[in-house]
Structures are given as C-alpha cells and as structure tokens.
Design a protein that fits this description.
This protein is α/β, with parallel strands linked by helices and about 280 residues long. It has a domain at about 1-65: ACT domain (Alpha-Beta Plaits), CATH 3.30.70. Helices cover about 40% and strands about 25% of the residues. Strands 8-7-6-5-9-10-11 form a 7-stranded mixed β-sheet, with helices on both faces. It has a 4-stranded antiparallel β-sheet with strand order 2-3-1-4, covered by helices on one side. β6, α8 and β7 form a beta-alpha-beta unit. The radius of gyration is 20 Å and the shape is elongated. It catalyses: O-phospho-D-serine + H2O = D-serine + phosphate; O-phospho-L-serine + H2O = L-serine + phosphate. Pfam families: DUF4072, HAD. Belongs to the HAD-like hydrolase superfamily. SerB family.
Length: about 280
C-alpha cells in the first residue's frame, strides 16, 4: 500500500526532514504550510525509527493512504473537554464550590481508564450539589476557550461538506452553546439536574458514557448514510476509545497513553488544525 507521510511541528528542521525522507525512501518533500510537510509514496517499514526521531524533535507524524482525499470523509465526531476546548468543564465548575482538586483527581483517573466513566461522573457530580446554576455561565464566559486550531478545522469540515458531531461525557449546557456558536450539525452530552436554581448533584436520564459516544457516532452515521470508512473521530481520554474504534480513522489529540496507543494517528505537539493534513488531498 502506498502512503503519504505527514510531518508537522512548530518548527521542522530541514535536516530532520531530509533524514526522515531517507528513512521513508522518499525523494521529494512538499510543503503543505510552514508547519506541515508531505513525503509522497513513503515506505513505512522504518516507522519505528521515524517515530523515535519525531519524538526527539517534538514532531507529529502520520502515514496516511496515498489516495485519500478530504471529501472521502462524511462525518467528523469530536470530544469536547480537552479536545475541542482547552478545559475540563466539570473541574472548573468544581472550582466554584471549592472541590476542584478532588474532582480533577477523579477526572484524571477516569481519562486514564482507571475508573469506569459512569461511576466517575456520578461521584464528581455529587460533589457539586448545592452550587448555584449561575456558575455554569461563569465557567462558559470566564474559563472556556476553544482549542487553538479548532475553528480552522471545523471550517475545513464545513467547506468540504463533512457533518460534525460533538459528543461528550460533559454537559448539555456547554455542548448546546458550542453547537450554536460553531454551527455544528449535532451535539449530545449529559444534562445536570437543576432544582430551584441549584445543582442537585445528579444527572438526568441515562449517563452518556463511552458506549453512548460510540452509539451516537453510529446513529448519526446511519442517518446520513455514511460508511465507517468515511467517519473520523477525535478524542483524548479512555472514554473516547469505543467511539474512536467505531470510526474508520481516529486521532488522539494530546491524549492519554492508552488512547495514543489505540488511535490511527496521534497529535502530541501541534494544535487542532494539524488534523487537516491527515484528512488527505483537497
């Protein structure tokens, strides 16, 4: 099978590119932009050596199919916390009630796959009981930021007719706002119970967990008549693994080791726009 080898970094030394090209048995190096380069018809037999060199130089690399085009994709599915946005919303909500350290520790354990997600979410949300619901708006206004490159990536999806699904183990308060703000096609997440203007410490309905994320991917895929191969999933934590496995291609974005190991591609050093060259040719 023929591959294109994509090399990306904040600074990509010319000498490093030449060394990688030699390992990949490639003669020509084409610049995609100032941070991304394509080595066409690359040999992946030295992938381990290329990976080691890229890690040393803090470069991201990916062997993608030579004949792949952006418009081969029809659905892009994205996680929210620490993927589309820079924060973990529940940790920041917890900060408003003075339990961020405790909640963040549970979040980290869940993202590493050490705690079943539904259990971890139930435990974390319980610690929020009694907090004024106005705190959710404060988190959105004061702390929520889009991941650098997110808007450029979404614009690329939209330009090429790729439907977008934001699916999160987080909360509808945030996913609904981001769906409207970014003109996403679909969004799904968990709903916090609010009574008399305060969080009760409970989730309404069934918790959207790892299986729920995969189910939503398949639901939308079927609705828009999209094959698995035409689906891309992007995530960072263990709760994203089933969703990523259900997609034809997956990207681990600044992810936990367990996710990097199982994803099609890993982006460890670049912003979210680095997904674009992995989609293929225009």
């Amino acid at each position: 099978m023929l591959y294109n080898l994509i090399i990306q970094g904040q600074h990509v030394p010319t000498q490093s590119l030449k060394q990688i090209a030699k390992l990949a048995n490639v003669g020509a190096i084409d610049a995609i932009n100032q941070q991304a380069f394509c080595l066409s018809q690359a040999d992946n037999s030295q992938a381990a050596a290329i990976a080691a060199m890229c890690a040393e130089q803090q470069l991201d690399f990916a062997f993608i199919p030579f004949h792949r085009y952006i418009k081969d994709f029809k659905l892009a599915v994205m996680d929210m916390d620490s993927t589309l946005i820079t924060i973990e919303c529940i940790d920041e909500i917890a900060d408003m009630i003075g339990v961020k350290t405790e909640v963040a520790a549970i979040t980290e354990a869940a993202m590493r796959g050490e705690i079943v997600f539904a259990e971890s979410l139930t435990r974390r949300v319980a610690l929020l009981a009694g907090l004024d619901a106005d705190a959710l708006q404060r988190v959105y206004d004061e702390r929520l930021q889009l991941t650098p490159g997110a808007e450029k990536l979404i614009a690329t999806f939209q330009k090429n007719g790729i439907k977008t699904l934001l699916v999160s183990g987080g909360f509808t308060f945030f996913t609904d706002k981001l769906k409207a703000r970014l003109n996403l096609d679909y969004a799904a997440s968990n709903e916090l119970e609010i009574v008399d203007g305060k969080l009760t410490g409970r989730i309404l309905g069934t918790i959207l967990d790892a299986q729920g994320k995969a189910d939503w991917l398949n639901k939308i895929r079927n609705e828009i008549d999209c094959t698995q191969k035409q689906t891309l999933a992007i995530g960072d934590g263990a709760n994203d693994l089933l969703m990523m496995a259900a997609a034809g291609s997956s990207v681990a974005y600044h992810a936990k080791p367990i996710v990097r190991e199982q994803a099609s591609y890993a982006l460890n050093y670049n912003d979210l726009s680095a997904v674009i060259p992995l989609l293929g040719k225009e």
